[in-house]
């Protein structure tokens, strides 16, 4: 799939290349290709009629619907994806789900993202840091990074205009009982995060904080009294089901699960070790009923959650708690936010997830993978282990950090004492060679005396 995506481009006309139509394209283009083929277009119309009743079991019992599904799985529509922010994004997503809702139950816990995979990294954003005036906040521990982010936004006309627009909309009181228009607030927020470059929006959302005033400013970034909080917290599964009735919200939630779902087989706990993809998916959820935000102004831990609870879940409580933990106890999301706030990124990641490496001979003294990922100290220790593992496997190619400096401390302890030897085993081997070097010149002299 990755190879196909990398080769994706303007598809060849079906008449020239019989296989070109299988190259992944955006769903609007795939719909055009399907419409140009009578067999595909007729089957697509049939499938849409089958799905009109929204009863998948009835649809699958119909042979004509089954035949339409089988044909469309071999069409360009099956592999199509959408680009975030594309001109016809909503139309593209509607086409995507018109196919994929027929291929799945539509009630899976996780759904595949309809968006093209993100290949850029956080380092791409860090390279654009020169657009901000003044000293880099990372060099000043007393700086309010969130305030600096707001100042940087005000220096850009587009960022300033759209930020002022959503703040004004989300703060405008409608009546004595309704202090704002939640629908208009969400729309203004979506425009801001879709139209303003991420080097500005990320700094507002994920700025690092060392004091409560800074953390509260970060929490207030999206005007939570209107965009986030409500009179009562709905059940999280009800909120998810409501989100899935809207093609755009459903797509953003599926994208979040695809890019932020915790993966303990990777260096960073993120799929593909891609912090950028996770943070982009998080930002994509803002402006919907599923909008996530910081639950408090804590400076010691980062806890993210949508405005919902699992109260009243009944026999679905376990599934509800699992869904909520993907926000509140997600090491990938937390690591990604911390990485951006610290100005760090993973520049090198294994092509294939490798099993955990055992570190001799002090493995038993090293902290284990955290059972309770709410413990920030445990998380820090774990990040040291995973970073050190990567350094051992790939050499010092990662960008320098506190964690990497800790990786070198144990090996330098040996090499500083004995520069010529790396380990005590080498020391013995070196000693044997040393004595051998002194004994060998004596042997010819002894043999000469014996001959005389």
From TrEMBL:
<dbReference type="GO" id="GO:0016167">
    <property type="term" value="F:glial cell-derived neurotrophic factor receptor activity"/>
</dbReference>
<dbReference type="InterPro" id="IPR037193">
    <property type="entry name" value="GDNF_alpha"/>
</dbReference>
<feature type="disulfide bond">
    <location>
        <begin position="310"/>
        <end position="320"/>
    </location>
</feature>
<keyword id="KW-0472">Membrane</keyword>
<feature type="domain" description="GDNF/GAS1">
    <location>
        <begin position="27"/>
        <end position="104"/>
    </location>
</feature>
<comment type="similarity">
    <text>Belongs to the GDNFR family.</text>
</comment>
<dbReference type="GO" id="GO:0007399">
    <property type="term" value="P:nervous system development"/>
</dbReference>
<dbReference type="GO" id="GO:0009897">
    <property type="term" value="C:external side of plasma membrane"/>
</dbReference>
<feature type="disulfide bond">
    <location>
        <begin position="170"/>
        <end position="185"/>
    </location>
</feature>
<feature type="disulfide bond">
    <location>
        <begin position="153"/>
        <end position="159"/>
    </location>
</feature>
<feature type="region of interest" description="Disordered">
    <location>
        <begin position="343"/>
        <end position="376"/>
    </location>
</feature>
<feature type="disulfide bond">
    <location>
        <begin position="34"/>
        <end position="40"/>
    </location>
</feature>
<keyword id="KW-1015">Disulfide bond</keyword>
<feature type="domain" description="GDNF/GAS1">
    <location>
        <begin position="146"/>
        <end position="226"/>
    </location>
</feature>
<dbReference type="InterPro" id="IPR003438">
    <property type="entry name" value="GDNF_rcpt"/>
</dbReference>
<keyword id="KW-0675">Receptor</keyword>
<feature type="disulfide bond">
    <location>
        <begin position="260"/>
        <end position="278"/>
    </location>
</feature>
<protein>
    <recommendedName>
        <fullName>GDNF family receptor alpha-2</fullName>
    </recommendedName>
</protein>
<dbReference type="InterPro" id="IPR003504">
    <property type="entry name" value="GDNF_rcpt_a2"/>
</dbReference>
<keyword id="KW-0449">Lipoprotein</keyword>
<feature type="domain" description="GDNF/GAS1">
    <location>
        <begin position="236"/>
        <end position="332"/>
    </location>
</feature>
<feature type="disulfide bond">
    <location>
        <begin position="180"/>
        <end position="226"/>
    </location>
</feature>
<feature type="disulfide bond">
    <location>
        <begin position="243"/>
        <end position="249"/>
    </location>
</feature>
<feature type="glycosylation site" description="N-linked (GlcNAc...) asparagine">
    <location>
        <position position="399"/>
    </location>
</feature>
<feature type="disulfide bond">
    <location>
        <begin position="236"/>
        <end position="308"/>
    </location>
</feature>
<feature type="disulfide bond">
    <location>
        <begin position="270"/>
        <end position="332"/>
    </location>
</feature>
<keyword id="KW-0732">Signal</keyword>
<feature type="glycosylation site" description="N-linked (GlcNAc...) asparagine">
    <location>
        <position position="342"/>
    </location>
</feature>
<dbReference type="InterPro" id="IPR016017">
    <property type="entry name" value="GDNF/GAS1"/>
</dbReference>
<keyword id="KW-0325">Glycoprotein</keyword>
<feature type="disulfide bond">
    <location>
        <begin position="146"/>
        <end position="207"/>
    </location>
</feature>
<keyword id="KW-1003">Cell membrane</keyword>
<dbReference type="GO" id="GO:0043235">
    <property type="term" value="C:receptor complex"/>
</dbReference>
<feature type="disulfide bond">
    <location>
        <begin position="209"/>
        <end position="214"/>
    </location>
</feature>
<keyword id="KW-0336">GPI-anchor</keyword>
<feature type="region of interest" description="Disordered">
    <location>
        <begin position="1"/>
        <end position="21"/>
    </location>
</feature>
<dbReference type="Pfam" id="PF02351">
    <property type="entry name" value="GDNF"/>
</dbReference>
<dbReference type="InterPro" id="IPR017372">
    <property type="entry name" value="Glial_neurotroph_fac_rcpt_a1/2"/>
</dbReference>
């Amino acid at each position: 799939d990755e190879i196909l995506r990398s080769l994706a481009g303007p598809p060849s006309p079906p008449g020239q290349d019989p296989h070109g139509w299988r190259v992944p394209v955006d769903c609007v283009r795939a719909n055009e290709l399907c419409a140009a083929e009578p067999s595909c277009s007729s089957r697509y119309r049939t499938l849409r009629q089958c799905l009109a009743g929204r009863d998948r079991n009835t649809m699958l019992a119909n042979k004509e619907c089954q035949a339409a599904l089988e044909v469309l799985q071999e069409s360009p529509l099956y592999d199509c994806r959408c680009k975030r922010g594309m001109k016809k994004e909503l139309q593209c997503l509607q086409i995507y789900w018109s196919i994929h809702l027929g291929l799945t139950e539509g009630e899976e816990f996780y759904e595949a993202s309809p968006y093209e995979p993100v290949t850029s990294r956080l380092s791409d954003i860090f390279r654009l840091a020169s657009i901000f005036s003044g000293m880099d906040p990372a060099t000043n521990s007393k700086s309010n990074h969130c305030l600096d982010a707001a100042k940087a936004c005000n220096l850009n006309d587009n960022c300033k205009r759209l930020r002022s627009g959503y703040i004004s909309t989300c703060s405008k009181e409608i009546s004595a009982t309704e202090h704002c228009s939640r629908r208009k607030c969400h729309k203004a927020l979506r425009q801001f995060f879709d139209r303003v470059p991420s080097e500005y929006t990320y700094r507002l959302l994920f700025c690092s904080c060392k004091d409560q005033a800074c953390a509260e400013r970060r929490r207030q970034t999206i005007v939570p009294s209107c965009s986030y909080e409500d009179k009562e917290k709905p059940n999280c599964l009800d909120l998810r089901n409501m989100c899935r009735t809207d093609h755009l919200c459903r797509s953003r939630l599926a994208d979040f699960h695809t890019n932020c779902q915790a993966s303990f087989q990777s260096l960073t706990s993120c799929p593909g070790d891609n912090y950028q993809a996770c943070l982009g998916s998080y930002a994509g959820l803002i402006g919907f009923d599923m909008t996530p935000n910081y639950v408090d102004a804590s400076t010691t831990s980062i806890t993210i959650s949508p405005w919902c609870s699992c109260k009243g879940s009944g026999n679905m409580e376990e599934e509800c708690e699992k869904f909520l933990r993907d926000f509140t106890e997600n090491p990938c999301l937390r690591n990604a936010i911390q990485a951006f706030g610290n100005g760090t990124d993973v520049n090198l990641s294994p092509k294939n997830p490798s099993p955990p490496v055992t570190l001799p001979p002090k493995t038993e003294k090293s902290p284990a993978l955290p059972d309770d990922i709410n413990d920030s100290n445990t998380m820090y220790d774990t990040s040291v282990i995973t970073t050190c593992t990567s350094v051992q496997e790939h050499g010092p190619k990662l960008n320098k950090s506190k964690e990497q400096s800790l990786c070198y401390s144990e090996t330098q302890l040996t090499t500083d004492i004995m520069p010529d030897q790396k380990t005590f085993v080498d020391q013995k081997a070196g000693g044997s060679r040393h004595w051998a070097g002194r004994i060998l010149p004596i042997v010819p002299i002894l043999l000469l005396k014996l001959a005389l």
